[in-house]
What does this fold into?
Amino acid sequence: MADNYLEKRMEEYRAGRLANKSKVVVKSVAKGRPGDVVVNFPSLRVLLLGGPVGLISRISGMFRMAGSKVAFCHGDRKKCTPVAQANGSRYYPYDMADFSKVDLIIDDLSDRWNGFDVVIDLRDVVDDVKNEYVDPLSMLLVLHSHPMFGFVAHTDMDL
It folds into this structure.
């Protein structure tokens, strides 16, 4: 009896009837709702300088979700190291009061990434940004960093 069972199973195996059945999975594209705007982001190289850790975390996370490379500089290693590890960004543990360190960061990123596309200087942003403003402010900065919004820039020139 065991021999018959094994012979039958071997016959099914050779015929391909024991192979796992492949399943076809069809993913549907999420449909936009009325009022939705979709903006395709190119991969950008972004540098964030200083600022509140919560804001840095949110901005860097948004850029990383859009496929961009992100580096940021901040003096608080204890809070910023987990942020960099969580979203895959590059962290430079420099005190932003020493502006000569910024030159080192710029040189390093120029070598590693062949330059960068966006620099967001958050050093003058107060540390007590209310939580309800972190998401809208982050989204505003990310959207205005899109190349389509190239007219949005800050210069030190008197107009």
Helices lie at 2-15, 53-65, 77-87, 100-113, 131-144. The chain has a mean pLDDT of 82. The first strand starts at residue 45 and ends at 49.
